[in-house]
Amino acid sequence: MEDFIQANMNAFLPLRDVVFNTLRQGILTGELKPGERLMEIHLADKLGVSRTPIREAIHMLELEGLVTMIPRRGAVVSQITEKGIKDVLEVRRALDVLSVELACERITADELSALEKACDHFAACVRTGSTKQIAQADVELHDIIVRATGNDKLIQLVNNLAEQMYRYRFEYIKNAEQHDRLIEEHRIIYQSLLKKDRETAAKAAKVHIDNQEEAVLTRIRLEVENNPLSE
Question: How far apart are CA 144 and CA 155, in angstroms?
Answer without folding.
Answer: 11
